[in-house]
Amino acid sequence: MLIKIICIGKIKDKNIQAKIDELAKWISPYAKLEISELPDSAKDKEGGAVLKALEKERGCVFILSEEGQEFSSAQFSAKLSGIDSKIIFVIGGPYGISPEVKNEADCLI
Length: 109
What we know:
The protein is α/β, with parallel strands linked by helices.
């Protein structure tokens, strides 16, 4: 299984990067983790960059959004276990995620 994270902005904090590396190591027996960092810009430009990145990918798209659905750990695990394709998480920038990107989601979380 492949898990891809598309995020806006560079990960600059060394502590956060260490946690990401730890997570990648922890899930490596079960899935490969790829992270794609897109540059910060205006909300509409970020949305265009995310849409362009999603055009290259095929899989189940989860978008992290304030109005997204909340899951317990067990519920989220059950949701993920039913997916047999690539799992893509999109994390927006400080200005949120454009409606055009949200329309591409299989699930807002």
